[in-house]
Design brief:
Layout lengths: L2 H8 L5 H15 L10 H12 L4 H15 L1
């Protein structure tokens, strides 16, 4: 599953407040006014998604295995 597909799958699970924060951040990014995040933004996005989906080590391993299998 692609990263975009995973994000699209996670969006409906967000609360109204979380969706409003995502929308506000996207608007700031579009206007070029987003504050520069500390560290790698891709890793931060992954950490946020991982926390939101409550991924533990077992779920992560299962996801990695599914991705590897799908790429074969």
């Amino acid at each position: 599953m692609s990263t975009l597909a995973e994000i699209e799958e996670a969006l409906p699970k967000l609360t109204k407040e979380e969706l409003l924060r995502v929308e506000a951040l996207l608007r700031r990014i579009q206007r070029g006014q987003a504050a520069a995040p500390k560290g790698n933004p891709r890793l931060q996005a992954l950490d946020t998604l991982q926390a939101r989906l409550a991924l533990d080590a077992h779920k992560v391993e299962a996801w990695v295995a599914a991705v590897r299998e799908a790429r074969r």
